[in-house]
Amino acid sequence: MSTATAPVEVVVPGNVSDMAVGPDEAGRPAVWILDDFANVLYEADADSGRVQRVIGIGPGSPTGTTEDFIAVADDYVWVGSQLNNALTRVVVKDSGVEGVLEVAFPLTAVTTGDAVWVADVTGTVHGFDAKSLQPRGTVQPGYAVRGLAFLAGRVWVSSAGASGSTVTLLRSFDPSTRSLSEALRVGAGPSSYLSVAAGSLFLSDADSGRITRVDPATAAVSGVYSEPVGSYVVPGDAPVPWVFNYKSGDLTPLDLGGGHVGAGIKLGPHAALLRYAGGALWVADPPTDRVTRMALP
Predict the structure, then answer these.
(1) Hey, what domains does the chain have and what are their CATH numbers?
(2) From residue 222, how far is each of 194, 219, 237, 268 by CA, in Å?
(3) Is the pTM higher than 0.85?
(4) 3-class secondary structure for 128-150?
(5) Which residue stretches of the chain have pLDDT < 70?
(6) What are the beta bridge partners of residue 97?
(7) Is beta strand 86-91 parallel, antiparallel or unpaired with respect to 76-81?
(8) Is 172 helix (H, G, I), strand (E, B) or coil?
(9) How many angstroms from the chain centroid is the CA of residue 17?
(10) What are the tens digits of pLDDT across the range 98-129?
């Protein structure tokens, strides 16, 4: 197993709680990093790693006990704050906050180009127009929500199951009609991590190492893979899915045909918040407040 090189490194003077890759105000690739202690957003150039802007979002969390998040699409960066019960819109070209939506303890969000969809603690998924911020309606999947994803023109909603449950539920809806599909029962643990990679949906149960692939065209299970405990599929647009194990720090490509894992890369025990975008892997190292861009073979 080889050691990954890190040609680009971003160092921020604060806590790295989430990150996403998207365009800057000139349309160039940038990495957006959220510090949920100070509640500020850092924009760094993807090629040099230089921090270009620091944008204040609002009151921060002095304890860092909330799980805040960001989502990026085209002209906007969306910041969810559980402390403030809000989803904040940052306009990339204006470098500032222009719109705050009240959402009760937001858990996660996904963008669909012209809209943003955010799940709250009650299990409701709220839709808002990206430009006007007008409501697009709500969706009730019928369970507590763990993950949201957008693929094949539909929003996918995974469940956060109760302890002891052996399944994760997965439903999808058309953003224009909000019509829900039937629930797919996936034997991947009660609260599996939902990610999109290589054109498929993956539900990763890190407690068991079971990874389930779902075909978005048929909404059916198209593969089940057994990996070491602590494994999950890294989200992003990589041509092949990559599996990261947070216990060992190993990153390995997943062979969808045979189900075996090929030659891998050692990232180390502190790697977290992995994202693949723009032909590279982005890895956060929260103890050192660093984010690195790594080339994968």
Answers:
(1) 7-140+272-282 (2.130.10.10), 143-266 (2.130.10.10)
(2) 15, 9, 19, 31
(3) yes
(4) EECCCCCEEEEECCCCCEEEEEE
(5) 1-6, 60-66, 162-165, 188, 190-191, 258-263
(6) 90
(7) antiparallel
(8) strand
(9) 12
(10) 999 999 999 999 999 899 999 999 999 999 99
